[in-house]
Specification:
It contains 3 helices and no strands. By secondary structure, the chain is mostly helical. It has a domain of 38 residues. The radius of gyration is 15 Å and the shape is elongated.
Length: 73
């Protein structure tokens, strides 16, 4: 994964830093998280935030191999 430097408003960085500490993330990872949510919300404007949040969690569980199969019936 490549990285690049971007200029961000200091208020945004300060808020991300606070949230990052609270959620045990780095400031850049917190900003990436917010960007991912923003992208998903823009791509799916009819979905509620909680649904998007749960979709992100479900994907992380899948990537970690922590999902169980569900049998219908």
């Amino acid at each position: 994964m490549s990285t690049s430097s971007v200029r961000l408003d200091q208020d945004l960085v300060d808020k991300a830093s606070i949230m990052a500490k609270a959620l045990n993330r780095t400031t850049p990872k917190q900003i990436e998280h917010w960007a991912k949510i923003g992208e998903m919300m823009e791509d799916n404007p009819d979905l509620p935030y909680e649904f998007v949040k749960q979709a992100i969690i479900a994907k992380a569980e899948k990537d970690a191999g922590k999902l169980e199969s569900y049998d219908f019936g």
